[in-house]
Amino acid sequence: MFWSDATHLAQFGSASAWPVYLFFRNQSKYLCSCPTSGACHPIAFLPTLPHSILDFVSKLSKKRNYNDLLTHCKRKLIHRAWKILLDDEFLDAYRNGIVVKCYDGKLHRVFPRIFTYSADYPEKVLLATIRDKGNCPCPRCMIPKAEFYRLGFISDALQRVSSIRHYFRECVAAARDAIYKDGSPIKGTFPEMRLKAFSLNTFAETLGPLGFDIYRALTVDLLHEFELGVFKSVFRHLLRLLHAINPVLGMNLVAILDARFYQIPSFGKGAIRQFPSNVSEAHQCAARHFEDVLQIDIQCAMPVFKGLFPPEHDQEIQTLLFRLAQWHTLAKLRLHTDHSLKLLDKACRLLGDYGAAIRDCSTMTTSAARQPKSFNLTTYKLHALGDYVCNIRLFGTTDSYTTQLGELSHRLPKRFYQNTNKKYPAGQLAAQERRHTRIRRWQDVDTVETDMVDTVETACPPLRHHYMSESPRNTINLAEYLGKHQGDPAFSKVCVEAF
Fold this sequence. Notes:
With 499 residues, the protein is mainly α. It has a domain at 230-378. Helix content is 50%, strand content 5%. The chain contains 23 helices and eight strands. The strands form three sheets. It has a four-stranded mixed β-sheet with strand order 5-4-1-8. A two-stranded antiparallel sheet has the order 2-3. It is globular. It starts with a strand and ends with a helix. Pfam families: Plavaka (PF18759).
């Protein structure tokens, strides 16, 4: 299972890295979720476009807007990097397997398979080679963006199955010839006609003939798609409605909302933290802040928002908050059955029915708001909620491939960055990672050999000067040992010097 996500290495400055992490699916998901378990293996640091490329492009082109060309170069760069990783040696292991000495000390022939690839939406766009916010922005299907509002409809579920995304190699080859041989612009007429919804894909070109489907491997992302996506958008839109209602009713409803949140006590050890006094400002809020608001939705968010909206819309808002909490609870279960998946599918359909309620509520404030804004139902993150049941059936529960595992794994390269000279850190990070991996591998080998060998500790003969044990389990700190036995005659100054 692969994870990749660009991250900032320092709190101040522009230093960043783009690591790719590897997890083994046959390991326990509880072991993989622990950042210090060693289950995460950084395998590469993807390169980024240098800053000098702007000067280079400006000398070749008279256009002032280079966004299309830079996007094309970034896509080509990441797929060229994956082309190096998916080399002939990997393809041979993919076809014929590779002999590996496993934990039990025996040799086994292992066939590596790419199970899932977890990433946020901007990286999914690069990996699936689709257009960001284009006509078909979903990396798994070809449903047009204009039909995303039909979440929960039976026709939408059927269309997800019939409109699965495929790789069109002939169209890609024709568009590439038009760009590189005929000199056509990237967004010219012929490339747009042939290459509007897809582009050259290394995974499809290399592993496609062997049965691998990159579009299916791009799993759903509960962290960015719902907690930092759908629910964050709903929460902010409710705040917009409260700000628009304030001049009409003559009450500071946002201040009442902040006061109600502040009165809620914390719960558990690090489970739900104390809410700040200004929840409505939402400055530097991470996913856990919105998750805390949603985790206690029935006991917190629903009473907090209750009575703040006009009576004709208050019940719809309450029902929408309940449906969001219901869907989130079912989607985040660590163990699923057929019955729980049916409940999740039903919750998704009910959420789609009440999703239009918040859009309709925005019409009540259009006269008071300076810039009326309705809730957008044609976003990929809302559309992705309908794929969770299918992904859970294929790959297991969402905690096995959530991007939160990759976010926690960023602690390792950030720790390595502190030991670099802060100049061109990618190579230094890779060297430190190799050193760290070798040391950990040697420690694991020593532990395995010690566990497999049944060592018997024998008493040291009194005539021997010293005895070195073969097992490092029962170690003794001499400084602490001497400190505890200061009054013992055997540890007098003469005896210690003789020792």
